[in-house]
Amino acid sequence: MNFKVLIFLMMVAGLFSCQRQPQDPIDAKIEDLLAQMTLEEKIGQLVQKNGDHQNLHDLVRNGLVGSILNEVDLERIYELQRIAVEESRLGIPLLIGRDVIHGFRTIFPIPLGQGASWNPALVEQGARIAATEAASQGINWTFAPMIDVTRDPRWGRIAESFGEDPYLTGVMGAAKVRGFQGDSLAAHNAIAACLKHFAAYGWATGGRDYNTVSIPYNDLHDLVLRPFKKGVEAGAATIMTAFNEINGIPATGNIPLLRDILRNQWGFEGVLLSDWNSVTEMVVHGFMPNDKEAAYMAMQATVDVEMVSRAYETYIPQLINERRISEQQIDDAVRRVLRLKFALGLFDNPYRFKGEFPPLLAPEHLDAAKQMATESVVLLKNQDVLPLSTNIRNLAVIGPLADAPHDQLGTWVFDGKKENSITPLQSLQEFGKSYGFDVYYHRAMETSRSHQITDPAGILRSAGRADAVLLFLGEESILSGEGKCLANINLQGAQEELVRLVATAGRPVIAIIMAGRPVTFEKVKPHMDAVLYAWHPGTMAGPALADLVFGRVSPSGKLPVTFPRHVGQIPIYYNHKNTGRPASIETFVHLYDIPVEAPQFSLGTTSHYLDYGFKPMFPFGFGLSYSSFEISNVLLEKNQLKTGENLRVTLNLKNTGNMKASEVVQLYTRQL
Ligand code: NOJ
Hints:
The chain is an alpha/beta fold. Helices cover 30% and strands 12% of the residues. The two termini are 37 Å apart.
């Protein structure tokens, strides 16, 4: 039996410090370069331009750009690096950044789905593959992992997160850092990781992207900053600031957060980068009167590199003249950028991408993507219908996501291609051919948002003669991701109607939901005999889902986030405090059961909603299996822990079912 154990424990780690050796030979090289650099060239290292910026070659030639994002054409990257090292005065190579969020060409499940695997080794392997593919195309820096803890499924970028738990997020984030950066950043297939968004971006009020964040100090530390600390300890080379303001101060100019906590308390010596225009957006926030003051504030907060907006290049010279910032501050920022370039081995070999690489979409990459897609799927309901037998005669495959090669890839996919996707329909048709059953397919709705069901009569005919109906529901990829927030997180368009329609055929209905967030489907859940929650599974969605449906492998995913029954319950999360009046079944009376003119205090007075109670649709950590497990002999090594101490917990885990399966063992502690 194969099982994974993940233990939840709160530990207070010692203060992290990454002191450098004073005699580091790289230091000498950096100082040597710095001594030769003009102020203009120094500022250039702090400037990041988008790949389509005008006159980029000239800017690079003149030493006015230190890094570029969103350039993925190998020829153009080669040319830019060549100009930087051969034609610029000091020959400083370029950092080439890209959002490699869940794969480069081989697309893995969205990060939220990866979180559901609870398998950091697999997450690390996925990041390693993504790094290898990206590095082969000239990328040496990725803006990932995103480790924003969030409790709000309305927020579109929940798709890019590992969910609501700081511990799980920290473990997964650290795994990604190790995967991207490998054993040595200098390896030709390693790329620098970037923890983002520092901080509290996932705490946006109302789940509306970029929105203001108010967060109590203890929540900031216990929930939001914890994964970042772990990521720093894992050696993340860079960190990106967030767009939002936190308790009145935009993250990009937030001295207490960036300078005091990140730099001084945690000892982070890597590159700190703004988000896209987030330096000058401090003016839009109303925090700074103009771009010059925004540059000043970001500099004071130790933001090294400005992404895209132009406040640094425009105003730092003046700010230095006016002695408001010192050249020493600029030097420190430039040192950090140069150090990263040295660490990546770019001074020795700016053309690292010319090394030996496996091809994009190498078979082992696709295998790993399939494995991750398989382990990310969560079985939410199963009334003895799954797995299906391959002895069936007819299978109905219905719904807008069954054959959606683009949408199964999910959000934040820039370099993956839908032509490489294997859709569930394709894989199920293949199974049909091998095992001799017929597959009847109806897209039913043009998109996940359509209000029209096409050919309802045909759908009913196919459903009626099928041994089982696989209903592929969910969201197109464009409904989650940056700026893609929803106030209504139910199944969109006519999907609920489609569920009801199909259910009238009286055949087993298996819903397979692909989405970038927790979708609420409380009302139609009773019509579903089984539910597999697949997130957006990536390139290999089809093979992974077909294996799960037919029981070649048992689902083992567990939810990394709470699923509300109704959007109005948000925020609803597992690690909530007890309150003085915790909700209970005994005292809860539903809205419709309240007697007419009931006296004010005749009903329970505990923490719940009259209409939706206090329970979610599915709790954090939930996930069924085709097998069953028994946990016994749970032993804690000691019953008292000092700060910083570890606790060993042992137990026996037995697969008591009759198929091979994996289980995640979860242990929760409560902090009083
Ligand atoms: C804005 C996003 O917030 C950030 O996560 C991303 O890395 C940059 N754009 C660059 O694409």
